[in-house]
Amino acid sequence: MQVSSLHEVKIYSLSAGRSLPEWLSDRKKRALQKKDVDIRRRIELIQDFEMPTVSTKIKVSRDGQYIMAVGTYKPRVRCFDTYQLSQKFERCLDSEVVTFEILSDDYSKIVFLQCGRFVEFHSQHGHYYKTRIPKFGRDFSYHYPSCDLYFVGASSEVYRLNLEQGRFLNSLQTEASESNVCDINPVHFLFAMGTAEGKVECWDPRTRNRVGLLDCALSSVTADTEIEGLPSISALKFDGALNMAVGTSTGQVLLYDLRSSNPLIVKDHHYGLPIKSIQFQHQLDLIISADSRIIKMWNKDTGKIFTSMEPEHDINDVCLYPNSGMLMTANEAPKMNIYYIPVLGPAPKWCSFLDNLTEELEENPESTVYDDYKFVTRKDLENLGLAHLIGSSLLRAYMHGYFMDIRLYHKAKMMANPFAYEEYRREKIRQKIEETRAQRVQLKKLPKVNKELALKLIEEEGEEQQFGKKRKQKNLPSLLKDDRFKVMFENPDFQVDEQSEEFRLLNPLVSKISEKRKRKLKMLEELEAQGEEEEEEPEGKASDAGSSESSDDEKGWVEEVRKQRKLLRQEEKLKRQERLKEDQQTLLKPQFFEIKEGEEFRSFKDSAKKQKLMKKTLEDRLKLEEKLGTLNVSDTTVGSKQATFKLKKSEQQRKQQEAEKRHRQERKTLRRSASHLKSRRGRGRLFH
After folding, report:
1. How are beta strands 252-257 and 265-268 bridged, if at all?
2. Per DSSP, what are the bridge partners of residue 184?
3. Is residue 109 part of a domain?
4. What is the C-alpha to C-alpha distance for residues 78 and 92, in angstroms, rounded to an integer?
5. How many domains does one find in the chain?
6. Could you read off the pLDDT of 18-62 as tens digits, one per residue?
7. Do residues 206 and 245 both lie within one domain?
8. Which of 167, 249, 274, 316 is the most exposed place for a label (fewest CB within 10 A)?
9. Does residue 377 share a domain with residue 340?
């Protein structure tokens, strides 16, 4: 029995474990149960609770004694007796079953809707009658007061078959092109059908008139949902007299109050798969909705998720055992799953021992260990070359990675790295050799970067170890062993530049500190050699000597710093002199510049002006053009701006214009002089 927990809700999978093949004899099955511990420890709640290949629908009779399931291949129906915990009977059919309905309290009256347009009736002894409907059916419902069967399918009509009279009645004409599902309210017997256009039509069977229409496709689209096409209705279920749940083909579940056209709540499965089944759990006010991948349980008032289950195989149908915490699924696998959730309710009467079993398991909790599965991350899958399996049934998504079969993991690892064992063997040999080497005399290895600093630290550490026990000082971590300073001895960027100005100015201080430390160590050796009685006087003398030595050290340090500063100044002077000599020796070569076509060279100042002008903004350039008179901006009558530019002229054009201007002025002066002479001559003739 497999136990899982989600949102602190324990889910017990009663069908987990290995199943034995049908063709094995009873003797071999018993022998396997003795040998294999997993087979012996499994819980087989109902014997042979499975189908040959696939199970499509599963239902429980109203008295709770019989569980009926249909599947393939070959098409068949199996009835299981819960009181005997075994199979009651099995019947093979001519074609696959789309859906079926148990009309009586037990298995004595069953109706099957088959994929070949056939409607088959079974009684307690077996096959009773078969008929056909005009179009392919997809779902049907039974109206108890009138004994009518309502069939919906690939047609706009709803076919009615009266079981009391044994004939078809007038069909209901709808506005839909096709219908997928239907249901009848158990309180007031309102008939509802879900269409391919995403609408729900409600009909009154007494008057055979439509009394309501809901546009669920429009209501299912919210701000968070991404829908590629028009959602159609894939599931429909009534709850009491006023509530109705609708499932769409795009993975949304809408809860309606029949008095309103707007949904009370919209729940999205976020898988984009059609909703297969909807069930109501009244004790905790939960809705159990399922698509082919996941079963979700959520509160119908708030929409908050209660728990969820993700079986190994695709789900075809879900059945909740009445007034209990047992859940059964029909899926794309031979074995039909049985889940027990104690929070939903007690175990059924026929398996009341489950309550005691789960209580014992809760009293002795064990850590969940997945022996047959390996947890891998996305990076591990890429290294193994199995990234293409993401989204398939071979990988189960969990937290930040995936669970995969341990056998598949070992095979992939062997193919990706066939020499893994050899590498492991070499690593073990290397570790053994290192252990033996640790017993030998070890040489001090200096790092590649900052060797001088490392040597200094090693010497200081050695000196401190010699006198550390007697001085009773605190053990401080070494810089060489500290991970925070490891990069300083590995990265070449942290190499100490001894020729830099900062190092040369600080070097006298560092050297003096090291000398002072050595003197202190020698002084401590002398103090320890003397007796306890003579310790006080030397200590007083040592303090006086230390004070005098500290003053001498400070003076010496100041002198050395001054020397270093003088040396640095001299070096800078020499560098300046060398630069001057190099500048004097270098010969200045003429530089040639290319002038664009149509331009004349005046001076280097013009080019500098042009560069400055190009760096300015458009606004500054326009203002400059207005000052020079080459730009004229004026307002028009419409309210817009009009800008007039004057092109700059070249030097040749300017000279030509000046020559023409002089020529015109000369001609004007000549004309004036000629007219003046003519007037003087006329006056002379008059005087004569």
Report:
1. antiparallel
2. 191
3. yes
4. 9
5. 2
6. 555 555 666 776 676 666 656 666 677 888 888 989 999 999 999
7. yes
8. 167
9. no
HEC readout, 410-451: HHHHHHHCCCHHHHHHHHHHHHHHHHHHCCCCCCCCCCCCCH
Specify if 668 maps to a domain. Answer: no
Residue 532: predicted pLDDT: 44
- How far apart are the C-alpha atoms of 595 and 604, rounded to whole Å? 12
CA distances from 22 to 25, 49, 58, 199, 333 (A): 8, 12, 21, 46, 15
Question: Which residues is 634 bridged to in the sheet?
Answer: 642
User: HSE on the CB side for 45, CA within 13 Å?
Assistant: 29
User: Encoding tokens for residue 247?
Assistant: 């499932």
Residues in CB range of 602: below 8 A, 6 or more apart: none
Which of 335, 363, 391 is the last residue before a domain boundary? 363
SS3 call for 555: helix
- Report which residue type is found at 189: F
State the pTM of this model.
0.53
Bridging pattern class, strands 97-102 and 110-114: antiparallel
* 475 is a domain residue: no
- Whether 33 is covered by a domain: the verdict is yes
Pairwise CA distance, residues 266 & 275, whole Å:
13
In the chain, the percentage of residues whose pLDDT exceeds 70 is 75
Q: Give residue 449's pLDDT.
A: 79
352 and 402 together in one domain: no
Q: At what angle do helices 451-471 and 501-529 cross, to 10 degrees?
A: 20
Q: Distance (Å, rounded) from C-alpha 287 to C-alpha 281?
A: 6
| Furthest-apart CA atoms within the chain: distance in Å | 170
The residue type at 220 = S
User: Do 608 and 618 meet the contact criterion of CB atoms below 8 Å apart?
Assistant: no
Whether 171 and 270 map to the same domain: the answer is: yes
3-state secondary structure of 296: strand
CB atoms within 10 A of CB 420: 11
| Cα–Cα dist 340/354, whole Å | 8
Task: Quote the strand ranges of 28-65, DSSP E.
Answer: 54-60
Q: Which residue pairs, CB below 8 angstroms and at least 24 apart, start in 634-637? A: none
- Rounded Cα distance between 214 and 256, Å, is 10
Residues 156 and 273 in one domain: yes
Q: Are strands 209-215 and 199-204 parallel, antiparallel or unpaired?
A: antiparallel
Q: 188: Cβ–Cβ under 8 A, 6 or more apart, which residues?
A: 241
249 and 394 co-located in one domain: no
Domain boundary among 363, 398, 427: 363
Report the chain (688 residues): mean pLDDT per 10 consecutive residues.
Answer: 79 73 65 64 80 93 93 92 92 93 93 93 92 93 94 93 92 92 93 93 92 87 69 92 92 92 90 92 92 92 91 92 92 90 90 82 57 82 86 83 86 80 83 74 64 75 62 59 79 78 65 54 58 43 47 66 78 82 70 64 64 78 77 66 67 77 85 77 55
- Looking at residue 400, its pLDDT comes to 82
Element (DSSP H or E) covering residue 480: none
Q: What is the pLDDT of residue 291?
A: 93
User: What is the domain range of residue 403?
Assistant: 373-416
Burial track 165-177 (b if 16+ CB lie within 10 A, e otherwise): eeeeeebbebebe
Which pair of structure tokens corresponds to residue 9?
A: 């809700």
233/135 same-domain check: yes
* CATH code where residue 249 lies: 2.130.10.10
Residues 387 and 327 placed together within one structural domain of the fold: no
